[in-house]
Design brief:
Helix content is about 70%, strand content about 0%. The protein is mainly alpha-helical. It folds into two domains: about 55-155; about 170-370, MetI-like fold (Orthogonal Bundle), CATH 1.10.3720. It has a three-stranded antiparallel β-sheet.
């Protein structure tokens, strides 16, 4: 194998950089997050901590508020002003070095010193409040709450190893989402292949006006998925949706509301909308395969008296295996990651009946701010997509090459 030169490497370096930034780095980051209990809304778990850490800015902030609140206690018990001033001075002196700090690792000795300070301030305040049992202090509860918050500025490691993966195995909702995703993928891609092949055969005909037919056929694919889903949601609406009423009249469904308000109806609605939207794309891929077939083969078959079905089975289908493989691979990978269509059309409902893996991952990461477990679901999706690609490329692709040889 010929090795590339340094100049050749520099030529492809921009492409490698783009792949690293936009493909490799997100994958690695998601994989790393799976080993942590990472919640963006919890200051204790909003970063990846491998060791005990200490949040200096929040500790300084809590101490500042504590000193400020103690001014109200002086007004409530003027005779204790000297003692309160001494406590405030002690707080100000101790928290001063932490101003403008960061989240950093602390040793045992420093941690013990900080804990001793908090306990000392707490004892002095308890003694102070005990000396004035008849005084109604305004900030007594707030003071002890802030001291408790200062204790919580010690951040324990949120590294949890394989716990997220263990939870994933036991997560019935994940397995339900995986099953729903597989059902949606297999049925929609199968229908798109059959209808796409029929549409490709029509668009491949050299007849008058075929250019207009091709243009009209591609319109659904050109419409943004979210817009198409919103349009279909109006067509499925139980009150005014024309599609829902037609299906009800011909007996496919019991009532117009069954399209979006029942589990089977919602799944069928999502599949139908996806088939309508993506069949032109499948047809376009298959049309490219049809146009490279030598027309002389069809002429010879016609001379030999071969019928259309036999010609399709003996000539068209074998010569289009590679095109079909590529079309199926692209569509299965795309359908397995479906999000926007279902999110707009059904929102994953009713009762999670159409909740795909992408919808589930989005709800965990964005709705619950749990990026650790959400990343685990995303990694599981990546594994499933890799398995699908492997089966097509290595197994079906190898069989295809073997047949061609």
């Amino acid at each position: 194998m010929k090795r590339i030169t340094f100049k050749q490497f520099l030529f492809i370096l921009p492409l490698l950089t783009i792949l690293a930034v936009f493909s490799v780095f997100p994958i690695i980051s998601s994989f790393v997050y799976t080993f942590f209990d990472y919640h963006t809304t919890d200051p204790q778990r909003a970063q990846l901590f491998l060791t005990n850490s200490f949040n200096e800015p929040l500790f300084h902030q809590d101490g500042t508020f504590l000193g400020f609140f103690l001014n109200d206690e002086i007004h409530a018990a003027p005779t204790g002003e000297e003692e309160i001033r001494a406590i405030q001075a002690r707080i100000a002196d101790f928290i001063a070095p932490f101003e403008g700090g960061s989240v950093r690792r602390v040793g045992n000795a420093e941690a013990d010193e900080i804990y001793s300070f908090i306990i000392g301030i707490e004892r002095r305040l308890i003694e102070f409040y005990a000396r004035y049992p008849d005084v109604e202090f305004l900030r007594q509860e707030d003071a002890f709450t802030l001291l408790n918050n200062m204790r919580r500025r010690f951040i324990e490691p949120n590294f949890i190893g394989l716990d997220n993966y263990a939870s994933l195995v036991r997560d019935s909702r994940f397995w339900s989402a995986l099953r729903i995703t597989m059902v949606f993928t297999v049925i929609s891609v199968f229908l798109e292949l059959v209808l796409g092949m029929a549409l490709a055969l029509i668009m491949n005909k050299a007849i008058k006006g075929i250019g207009g037919v091709r243009t009209v056929a591609l319109i659904p694919w050109a419409i943004p998925t979210a817009v198409a889903a919103l349009m279909w949601s109006y067509l499925y609406d139980g009150s005014n949706g024309i599609v829902a009423h037609i299906f009800s009249e011909i007996g496919l469904i019991e009532s117009p509301t069954a399209m979006l308000l029942t589990a089977s109806g919602a799944m069928a609605s999502a599949i139908l909308a996806d088939v309508w939207k993506t069949t032109p794309y499948m047809a376009l891929l298959l049309l490219a395969g049809l146009q490279i077939i030598d027309s002389g083969l069809y002429e010879s078959a016609a001379i030999d008296g071969s019928g259309r079905i036999n010609t399709f089975r003996k000539i068209t289908l074998p010569l289009m295996k590679s095109s079909i493989l590529v079309a199926l691979l692209f569509r299965m990978l795309d359908a397995f990651r479906v999000y926007d269509l279902i999110a707009v059309l059904t929102g994953g409902g009713p009762g999670g009946a159409t909740e795909s893996l992408s919808i589930y991952a989005h709800r965990i990461m964005i709705g619950m701010n749990d990026f650790g477990y959400g990343s685990t679901v995303v990694v599981a999706m990546f594994v499933c997509v890799a398995i699908i690609a492997f089966l097509f490329v290595k197994i079906l692709g190898a069989e295809l090459l073997k047949n061609e040889d």
